[in-house]
Amino acid sequence: MSDLESARREAIRILCQAQADDRLSVEAFQTRFEQVNHAPNRATLAAILADLEDAAFPEPILSGSYPLVTADHPEAIAPVSPAEYLRISSVFASSKRAGAWTVPLEIEGFVVFGEMVLDLRDAVFGSDVVDINVDVKLGSFELIVPAGTQVENEMEETLSSSSHSTRSARGARPNGLLVRLRGRAWLASVEVKEKFPTSPGKKGNLLQRLLGSGE
Fold this sequence. Notes:
By secondary structure, the chain is an alpha/beta fold. The chain has helices spanning 3-20, 26-38, 42-48, 206-211, and strands spanning 85-91, 94-97, 102-103, 106-112, 115-119, 124-125, 129-137, 140-146, 150-153, 156-158, 161-165, 178-186, 189-195. Helix 1 (3-20) runs antiparallel to helix 2. Mean pLDDT is 78; it is low at 55-80 and 201-215.
């Protein structure tokens, strides 16, 4: 059995345990099960399971490949490839993604009578463009991006409020990362905040750190 197949089996075990513990709905389990079966590498598997507490793969993703960025190894660069797509739902609930997680190329969020926080400031990026599509009804959505990130907010708002705060990112230079925020907000609040990484050692040029280029 290949290393990737072993990782898939472990990922499926984690999904089954999460569903048994009521941490995943049946629909979410089915969606992630399909994503796991089509994941091209361990980095993608880690991204799919990033919000499940025992989903971490402490050993290298694949023999000879780069490790994930962690608090202990902030100098590591992005994995081979991120997940293409990830869907996150928060219905009558609160959900948050934060820490050193691998950001998919596209994220779809669905919030109804709930709240969702996506914190990307310590995340790993495999691309300099991230698309986020969010549908928020009677809830709140908060997006935290690394200081210096360009955010294009094209959300359609109805009886809603939105803000983009750079108060915590004063003095930050453009880092080359573009986040395109789209979707709909109805009777909801949408907040975008720029912040420096939680680890002081990560305040350098974001893309240079992630893509491994020099100063």
